[in-house]
Amino acid sequence: MTRIIAGFAGSLRLAVPPVGTRPTSDRVREAIFSALDARDVLPGSRVLDLYAGSGALGLEAASRGAAHVTLVDRAAAAHRVASDNAARVRQAAPRGDAPEIVVSSQSVQAFLGGAVGTWDVVFLDPPYDLGGTELRRDLEALVPRLAEDAVVVVERSARDAAPEWPDGLELDRRKDYGETAVFSLSPSAPEQGTLPADA
User: Fold this and answer.
1) Which helix (H) or strand (E) segment is 148 a member of?
2) Which end of the chain is less enclosed by CB atoms within 10 A, N or C?
3) Looking at the DSSP assignment, which residues form a beta bridge with residue 155?
């Protein structure tokens, strides 16, 4: 079991899929959300949790004021558990003020290929054995779906080499917590001085 740390659903226990997931520890989640709270990006935000597992990261954001959260995980067990956890978080919300929480059983690539709108905060906590090429492909598909001031949080094994970030994303910070490396990224500014051919 894991739990929501803070917000309207603080201390609510969440179920975890029996196999195939690696839940983010409370310590790491607390550090991630302390940094997000310091930037005041969660209230009213649209949040995307890719490779969501139990949904703990996205549901923590919902508890702390996100307006819309989408949890994406194609594993059937994860989808069932995340859906149950989402329902419990909705029930804990103040009457008439529950966040919108959507749970998708698509693959990350399929979801991003059909996604509309933009996201303010995105979590990617893929299995550590997901290759760097696959991660880069996911991030490339994500870039067009990011709001101008978006924050992207990526978790990887601290033992692995740092990922190669695609065009459109730049690294703001890396912080290691034992075996877990947390990378905070933001959309990179467009290059200056380039004019359209017909300008």
Assistant:
1) strand 146-157
2) C
3) 182
